[in-house]
Amino acid sequence: MSFTKKLQANYETYCNKTSRLSNNFLHYPRTISIETQVKCNAQCSFCPYPTSPRSGQEMSTQLFHKIIDDLSKIPPTHKFSITLARINEPLLDKRLKKFSQLIAQKLPSASQSFWTNGTMLQPGNFEWMSSFPSASLTISLNSIDNKEHKKLMGFGVEKVFNNLDYLHQLIIEKKFSLSVNLSAPFQGIKKTTEIENFCSSRWPLFKLGVRPFFIWTGTSSKGEKEKKEYSSNATQLNHFPCAQWFDLHFLANGYMTKCCIDESGYSTDNYDASKMNALDIYSLSQALRETLPPRENVSGCNNCHHLG
Predict the structure, then answer these.
(1) Is 306 part of any domain?
(2) Which domain holds residue 288?
């Protein structure tokens, strides 16, 4: 099946998949993301980080512990995923390993998902992830062309490629046990097929996933240019509900966001994890999960076509 057909199929089945989420995630989240700091070594043209007024913010260790304590009330039979990433390079936070250990201790039913742009996958900097056998590692690989990679992310591919070679060798030698995914944007059939062929040849043990570009919302909206340039021509989603209503996302300042592509988040005490229990904040959007209205009827969602 071609990439275009795969993406189209995702759109066509999205509504049914979202409707079924109510069976398992009505009261407790499907996915949780916590942005521990707003710091990145990339300048991606499609990401709000370079112009975000929140740049440099850091979630206090005390607040992080509070959020995890709040989430520890999730029943141990409830399976969900958690990631410590948003508009940042997570491996720049030297607390990441300790935070991940706390999650493993307090949230044993959670599967951890590590994300990186690949620049920090240096010897001695990430191998500790293997101590979490149910976790996964995803690397954003937005292009295999050096010039285009610089245009999109602000740096070339050589360092990333070298790091991925090192990671792949670790897997061959059975010194790294996590499943590794490469996440690439859909850029037309020809270019995306070239990426697939290149990655499967150089790193056959990695799994490549393809996604459409999307437009960020919030103070520093980004991605409109890339979405237009690399349009997937997929079905519009205005009349569909959104799976993001089953997720919980916290910014470094403690505020919850509407979804994974909302850069600014809410700004009222009801959505502030430093003042409210994280699960009580999740309950605020329960009406959306119960009724699953079309996006066009929900403020902030009416023009979004993201397959979140």
Answers:
(1) no
(2) 3-297
What mean pLDDT do residues 45-68 have? 94
Name the 3-class secondary structure at 180: strand
Q: CB–CB of 231/237 below 8 Å?
A: no
**Phi and psi dihedrals of 23, rounded to 5?**
-65, -30
The answer, yes or no, to whether residue 55 has pLDDT greater than 60, is yes
- Number of structural domains the chain divides into: 1
Longest dimension (CA), the chain: 52
262 phi and psi angles, rounded to 5 deg: -95, 115
pTM: 0.91
Please, are residues 19 and 1 in contact by the beta-carbon 8 Å criterion? no
For the four alpha carbons of 159, 164, 167 and 169, in that order, the dihedral sign comes to negative
Dihedral angle, C-alpha 13, 16, 22, 24, nearest 10 °:
-60
pLDDT one-digit tens code per residue, 219-232: 766 656 655 554 44
Residue 305 forms part of a structural domain: no
